[in-house]
Arsenate reductase ArsC (Massilia phyllostachyos), 160 residues
Amino acid sequence: MNVLFLCTGNSCRSLIGEAVFNHLAPAGWRAFSAGSQPTGRLNERALRLLADKGVSTEGCYSKSWDALPLTPDIVVTVCASAAGETCPAYLGPVLRSHWGVDDPSHVEGSEEVITAAFERAYAILRTRIEAFLALPLEQLANDRARLEAELDRIGTLLPA
């Protein structure tokens, strides 16, 4: 099963989703990330945060959804449309879900405020990915509607 974490710039939130998913996923599951308008570079704070959490970013790079190595089975958009972001719409025969997360790279303020925003984005994505991987995936593999409903429900979860 291949999961695509998609955002506009593919430098921060989608990177975190890709790296955390691959860190936690069982054998046979793989995540990728991409953007509709990639920045061409990964966010340094996001890379530091993941390194501090012991999550590898080896092989990660900012790329366009046109440059994917394969077609995903599931696409998870992570842009925060409530914040006025335009969320890219991946076209193709895939299961889609939206897990909006505020972009910590746009937060301004003290070092503490910015760090807290990155920690929050990480915590939200990790909570949702853990919930995704805890689903009875073998049972849901043949029930697309139920899997989509579960993924949409997970997209509303926040860390405790």
Notes: Residues 111-134 form the longest helix (24 residues). Residues 2-154 form a domain with the Rossmann fold fold (CATH 3.40.50.2300). The helical segments are 13-24, 44-52, 111-134, 137-140, 144-154.
